[in-house]
């Protein structure tokens, strides 16, 4: 591990399933939107498997599950709007940092390594969650799934971070919980680190073959 970390000049974290367990609040917002659409609620186990490709895809998966077929565009749009308005009001009620997250964040931070977040969740929700969980001050910034034309697994947001901090991809680390994080990291030329406790559509993230798999982020520092 020491070799992997030696030349690292930029650390990019995924948010949902890596730094924070956000599924309880996401589930509340999904279920509120389903209820509004007069459909049965989904519950946490399903939502945990559906998170990872941004909120619009999350809602499409929830509607497909409830309806037994893919929803129409307009219905999906309306339900997504319901989700967004509920989540905007309650982005961080039950959301908690994972054990080891604060140790890792502080460990990199005291070494002077810039910390950045690349998440697929809408950008507007990132600030409130970082603020409420008390980690806002450690990060130089973030990108959401709607910040750039392409999101993870595309490498675009990771390469944007490299340019912004003037750090080569080979000296940058992507830390995430899903195959989209590992794929984006590999495509960008980053060192890839994965955690097994998050959300990866019900599959082990080890299948994506990250450079390093750690049980707890604290192991990194
Ligand atoms: O909101 C999502 O779909 C996933 O978010 P993440 O990229 O922070 O895991
Ligand atoms: Mg994630």
TrEMBL record:
Its Enzyme Commission number?
Answer: 3.1.3.18
Which pathway, per its entry? Organic acid metabolism; glycolate biosynthesis; glycolate from 2-phosphoglycolate: step 1/1
Query: What protein family does this chain belong to?
Result: Belongs to the HAD-like hydrolase superfamily. CbbY/CbbZ/Gph/YieH family.
> Which key words tag this protein in UniProt?
Carbohydrate metabolism, Hydrolase, Magnesium, Metal-binding
- InterPro entries given for it? HAD-like_hydrolase_sf, HAD-like_sf, HAD-SF_hydro_IA, HAD_sf, PGP-like_dom2, PGPase_prok
List of catalytic residues: 14 (nucleophile)
From which residue to which does any coiled coil extend?
A: none
The organism is Halomonas huangheensis
Q: What class of enzyme is it?
A: hydrolase
Chain residues that bind Mg(2+): 14, 16, 177
Spell out the Pfam families in the cross-references: Hydrolase
Q: Cofactor(s) for this protein?
A: Mg(2+)
One GO cellular-component annotation of the UniProt record comes to: cytosol
What is the name attached to this protein's record?
Phosphoglycolate phosphatase
In terms of PANTHER family, this protein maps to: PHOSPHOGLYCOLATE PHOSPHATASE (PTHR43434:SF1)
**Function text:** Specifically catalyzes the dephosphorylation of 2-phosphoglycolate. Is involved in the dissimilation of the intracellular 2-phosphoglycolate formed during the DNA repair of 3'-phosphoglycolate ends, a major class of DNA lesions induced by oxidative stress.
Q: Name one GO biological process term.
A: DNA repair
Q: Entry's NCBIfam families?
A: HAD-SF-IA-v1, HAD-SF-IA-v3, PGP_bact, PRK13222.1-2
| GO MF, any single term | phosphoglycolate phosphatase activity
At the top level of its lineage, which domain of life is listed?
Answer: Bacteria
| Reactions performed catalytically | 2-phosphoglycolate + H2O = glycolate + phosphate
Q: Which Gene3D superfamilies match?
A: HAD superfamily/HAD-like, Putative phosphatase, domain 2
